[in-house]
Amino acid sequence: MNSIVGTYECKVDAKGRVLLPAPLKKQLALSLQDGFVLKRSVFQPCLELYPMEEWNLMMQKINKLNRFVKKNNDFIRRFTAGVKMVEIDSLGRLLVPKDLVVFANIAKDVVFSSAVNIVEIWDKDLYEKSISGEDVDFADLAEDVMGNLNDDDNGIS
Q: Between the N and C ends of the chain, which has fewer C-beta atoms within 10 Å?
């Protein structure tokens, strides 16, 4: 799968349904038939939407963990807690299960934010707070994470 691009704001209805924005739906078109996995994020109070192809790749990695190591077993249990298979309905809506709505503190406005090969789903206020930079110096973070990468000869990275 190619990278997913964009950040989109939407409304969630009282039943937890969100209409996928057209540009995002278009990018996910090849995944619509196979469905998706929706799960709690490990590090943030948001949800992660995995196209089934990406979820299967993640499960291949996780299945390599030795389950006779307690830490591995604990990780697998927590990583898969609340995991749900979901589909986009014929009207282009995603139904977010109630327990995941509660986990992500989703109220009325949501943000779909691309995260390379998956989509994060945030409550809008929490998303704005997470990217505001109040708790992280992004320049320092970028240098720490990307500063030593130089896979290309183009001088950029």
A: C
Please enumerate in sequence order all residues whose Cβ is within 8 A of that of 102, keeping only pairs 6 or more positions apart, or say none.
none
Q: What is the 3-state secondary structure (H, E, C) of 24-81?
A: HHHHCHHHCCCCEEEEECCCCCCEEEEEHHHHHHHHHHHCCCCCCCHHHHHHHHHHCC
| Cα–Cα dist 124/121, whole Å | 9
pLDDT band at 140 (very low <50, low <70, confident <90, very high): confident
| Sheet strand arrangement including 84-86 | 7-11, 109-115, 118-123, 47-51, 36-40, 84-86
87 alpha-carbon distance from chain centroid: 15
What count of other Cβ atoms lies within 10 Å of the Cβ of residue 51? 22
